[in-house]
Amino acid sequence: MRLATVQEVGARLGVAPTCAALGVSTASYYRRVKPKPVARLRPTPARALGAIERAAVLEVLHVPRFVDLAPAQVYAHLLDEGHYLCSPRTMYRVLAACQEVRERRDQLRHPRYVAPQLLATRPNALWSWDITKLLGPVKWTYFYLYVILDVFSRYVVGWMVAHRESARLAQKLLDETCARQDIAPGQLTVHADRGSSMTSKPVALLLADLGVVKTHSRPHVSNDNPFSEAQFKTLKYRPDFPERFGSIEDARAHCRAFFPWYNTEHRHSGLGLLTAHDVHYGLADQRIEARAGVLTAAYAAHPERFVAGVPRPPARPTEVWINPPPATATSTSNPAAGSEKDGGAFRASYSHAAASGGPDLRTKTQQLSITRLPAAIANDADKSATTEAALH
């Protein structure tokens, strides 16, 4: 559609300015309008075998004593018997023309894994869990930290430190966590990677008994479990995180201090700088309202310091995705940056200057960028620039 618009008005307004205003690459435009060259048929070489000769070669290759031999072996056998038909490469060409050439060995065909697309719109609808290693007192010793995270609120609903990675321990942790959070059958989806504990039969049977749906990441794709990976990074990049733990009791003591801080004190940028506890237990709107009152008072005291009008606190997300659909992903530039609907992360999306009767500099700038285009093209450019609600 845009390329057709460029082709229609580019001759009058210039191809380069029109492409720039519509966000189209000039190389793409010229490649589209350039006629494709007609493929020339390759002439048959004068030295090529005729149809009768090719049939004779194929007949020899189909002889029972030659069917399991490579063309080079057939070529050598025929020479030893005093016969020459053609070169080994020509034998391959004859076989390929009849679709009789393939890899002799059995080839492993990897299935095409589809990226999991998971959406959470409330707490306790989607959990993500993973296991990470904590370095022990000496080399090659580890402790294993199991963490279950609510994707919507980032609240750590369950954790455990153990000496080993075990499906039975994971089963026990999931069972106790579901009971603590009062998970009803059909309410929850649990997402994990493809580790041995995550894909084990005890965990699968437990989740089936609890009425919990389980999903897994694609093999070797860490991006399919981003929230657990981000939580582990927050844990290990803390200033008080030790290089090694002297014992499993030390590791558990550190986690007993870390996870309450993570849930109740740490302000998450992806949650509008709210704590996971506030979002998980429905206190987010109350916290945002209190912040809005503080910002309103600050604006009333010094309105000249806020050029965009009354500031607004960061908004909490209403939807959180793991691998959003393409249409959603392209319309979401920053999951924590808000949207036109929720007012953005730090200020209102509309112009207070325009609301008060003054000129809106942002709108004026957008209009100047397309002054050379007709009204229809300008409207199309405005529509394409409109963003949807931001998703996390």
Separation of termini?
30 Å
Oligomer: single chain
CATH class of the largest domain: Alpha Beta
How confident overall, as mean pLDDT? 83
| Fourth-level CATH superfamily of the largest domain | Ribonuclease H-like superfamily/Ribonuclease H
Strand and helix order: HHHHHHEEEEHEHEHHEEHHEHHHH
Biggest pleated-sheet summary: 5 strands, mixed
The helicity comes to 40-55%
Might you state the CATH topology name of the largest domain? Nucleotidyltransferase, domain 5
User: What proportion strand?
Assistant: 5-15%
- Low-pLDDT stretches: 330-392
Structural class designation? alpha/beta
CATH architecture of the largest domain: 2-Layer Sandwich
Total helical segments: 16
Structure characteristics:
392 residues, alpha/beta, Nucleotidyltransferase, domain 5, 4 domains, five-stranded mixed β-sheet, two-stranded antiparallel ribbon, flat, disordered C terminus
Summarize the topology.
Blueprint: H1 2-13, H2 15-22, H3 26-33, H4 51-61, H5 71-80, H6 88-97, E1 118-120, E2 126-135, E3 142-150, E4 156-162, H7 167-180, E5 189-192, H8 201-210, E6 213-216, H9 226-236, H10 248-264, E7 267-268, E8 274-275, H11 276-280, H12 284-301, E9 320-322, H13 326-331, H14 352-355, H15 361-368, H16 375-385
Parallel strand pairs: 2-5, 5-6
Antiparallel strand pairs: 1-9, 2-3, 3-4, 7-8
Helix pairs in contact: 1-2, 5-6, 7-8
